[in-house]
Amino acid sequence: VIFCDANAGWTPFQARQFADATRGIDYTFEQPCTTLEENMSVRRMLDKPMVLDESVTSLEEMLEIHRLGAADGLTLKISRLGGVTRTRQIRDVAVDLGFMITVEDTGGAEIDTAAMAHLSLSTPEERRLHAIAFHEWVTVRTAANKPPVTGSRMGIPDGPGLGIDVVPDLLGKPFFAIG
Ligand SMILES: [Mg+2]
Questions:
Q1: How far from 172 is each of 72, 114, 165, CA to CA, in Å?
Q2: Which residues contact 158 (CB under 8 A, 6 or more apart)?
């Protein structure tokens, strides 16, 4: 499974050159350009699935992507969308609208990856694309346990909530305490 993700870094000219040079390869094109208009101009000549990531900043933008037919799938990043609840809301509407879904984030350790894993695995299986075990990319440990990874598959840790045992020292002083 190949995703070619330009992270909004190309002009439509560059994206078209890339698409033309890789015509014989089976892959999904992810966010080649910055604006919806630029990505639409690439999509019109593309014979491959398109996923948008950086363009998905809110429920409103997701609905605009749907209205334009600008993508087959979406990458939903928890921090960019305002947290787990907002991401779930957008994910649920996006699934109803027929999008394929990846839930990830801009990076993170066990806490963030656990949230990603829960949101990914609560997406209907037929609509899931992929996920990333970001906690394996960083050296800070934010929880004593972590989402289990077996080969190329990730699960969710056992336990209430996100299922993780947060390392309290990393959190600093609490904003408030309930006794
Ligand atoms: Mg991306």
A1: 41, 20, 16
A2: none
φ and ψ at 125, to 5 degrees? -55, -40
How remote is the CA of residue 130 from the centroid of ligand 1, in Å?
11
User: Tens of pLDDT along 74-116?
Assistant: 999 999 999 999 999 999 999 999 999 999 998 899 999 999 9
Q: How far is the CA of 53 from the centre of ligand 1 (A)?
A: 5
Q: How far is the CA of 29 from the centre of ligand 1 (A)?
A: 10
Please give the span between the terminal C-alpha atoms of the chain, in angstroms, as a whole number.
50
- Between the CA of 172 and the centroid of ligand 1 the distance, in Å, is 31
Whether the Cβ atoms of residue 155 and residue 104 lie closer than 8 Å to each other:
no
Residue 178 Cα to ligand 1 middle (Å): 39
CA 13 to chain centre: 26
| Selection from 39, 38, 76, 46 nearest residue 59 by Cα | 76
Residue with tokens 């305490």: 177
- Cα(141) to ligand 1 centroid in Å equals 24
In this prediction the pTM is: 0.92
Output the CA 67–ligand 1 centroid distance in Å: 21
* Nearest to 74, CA basis, from 135, 117, 120: 120
What distance in angstroms lies between residue 31's CA and the mean position of ligand 1's atoms?
7
How high is the pLDDT of residue 4? 97
